């Protein structure tokens, strides 16, 4: 049994979902692990991870719109407003989605379904560099 | 340290929560792992996984109703409507719940609490077969 | 590769987020694992886990308020009301957050970002003792 660690940096340009499946696939492939478990962990509380459809780009636009509606940018609703109206909604959106994802690896590849892609879900309005830690365990 | 992979297929008959705890328990038991980590991963973006109460069936009926209300079936709200009014709400409901669950295994069994059951949460109206990948690592 | 199991009990005094990062850190440190994967699993369906900001305490107060609003305590909305008005909202709040978290361990420490803390999110009004199972795998 062997372990590998890696850090992926994803550049974001405002709220929305950023596909980074290919970058993770390439790294997993280079580790030459046939069978194991991959874990992705994002080191932030105002951006998150999600697995969603990779076919119709309208899905991720609609998702971003939906999260804009359920966590409104209205400073009167929150105590924590120091970084602007998108600050507390970003924490809420993060809590409603995932900070971590684990994916089985079989035959040297992530066991994703046909339509599944890996996304960083950015919840802040200004550009950020988001750090995702990858951990692969297997043989 | 040994690893095992398995695929469970769960048949669904419309929106709702489908208990598949027993099937997972049986497989874990057959692997004869005393101590380890079990990961469940659903290969879809319109059905998800959740751990919820296994005692009063009203809980899972209320949960299903709740998710019907927070992600309304109204095509005017979404761009992605190609597969019908339950299509985009299904992606939203998936994003608000889990695609993956990991559960420690101790004394040969999943370390579930007394009232915890494993559910596939179906978010589409028509019947589906949902594929869940199981990965067990331990000794 | 070695494995460790532990159980942490977190005492709660009503709805809100309870930071237990230090207690987890201490245990991980004592295991003397340099590189590996830590999994936290809460054995309840009316309390959950989340990773959120550990700097401004207003963030977790706002989060608790938000979850109070999206899952209202109104018995007319639910079938499952046997344990009081906070019963079914607690199950909903649990389903919208996490029952399990996995965190890579590098250089002997959890790979948390600077502002990330580990919280038990209590969703019931009366005090509880919540059991979180820890599993650490590594070398």
Main attributes of the structure:
homotrimer; 139 residues; alpha+beta; five-stranded antiparallel sheet; three-stranded antiparallel sheet; 3 helices; 8 strands; 25% helix; elongated
Structure explained in plain terms:
The structure is a homotrimer of 139-residue chains. The first copy, chain A, is of the alpha+beta class and 139 residues long. Chain A is 25% helix and 40% strand. Chain A has three helices and eight strands, in the order ββαββααββββ. Chain A has helices at residues 21-31, 57-70, 87-96, and strands at 2-12, 16-19, 36-42, 47-53, 100-106, 109-110, 116-122, 128-138. In chain A, the strands form two sheets. The first copy, chain A, has a five-stranded antiparallel beta sheet with strand order 1-8-3-5-6, covered by helices on one side. In chain A, strands 2-7-4 form a three-stranded antiparallel beta sheet. In chain A, β5 and β6 (109-110) form a beta hairpin. Chains in contact: A-B, A-C, B-C.
Sequence of secondary-structure elements of chain A: EEHEEHHEEEE
- What Rg of chain A do the Cα atoms give? 16 Å
Side by side, the strands of the main sheet of chain A go: 1-8-3-5-6
Poorly predicted runs of chain A are: none
How many DSSP-defined strands of chain A?
8
Quaternary organisation: homotrimer
Estimate what percentage of residues of chain A fall within beta strands.
Answer: 35-45%
Shape of chain A: elongated
**Biggest sheet statistics of chain A:** 5 strands, antiparallel
Mean pLDDT of chain A: 97
Which chain pair has the greatest contact?
A: A-B, 33 and 31 residues
Share in helix of chain A: 25-40%
Number of helices of chain A: 3
Helix and strand content put the structural class of chain A at alpha+beta
Q: Terminal Cα separation of chain A, in Å?
A: 5 Å
């Amino acid at each position: 049994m062997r372990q590998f660690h890696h850090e992926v940096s994803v550049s974001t340009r405002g709220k929305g979902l950023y596909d980074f499946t290919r970058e993770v696939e390439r790294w997993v492939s280079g580790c030459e692990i046939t069978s194991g478990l991959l874990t992705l962990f994002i080191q932030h509380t105002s951006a998150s991870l999600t697995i969603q459809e990779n076919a119709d780009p309208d899905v991720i636009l609609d998702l971003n719109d939906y999260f804009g509606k359920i966590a409104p940018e209205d400073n009167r609703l929150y105590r924590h407003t120091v970084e602007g109206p998108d600050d507390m909604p970003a924490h809420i959106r993060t809590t409603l989605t995932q900070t971590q994802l684990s994916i089985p690896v079989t035959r040297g590849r992530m066991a994703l379904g046909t339509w599944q892609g890996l996304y960083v879900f950015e919840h802040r309005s200004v550009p950020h560099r988001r750090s995702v830690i990858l951990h692969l365990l297997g043989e």
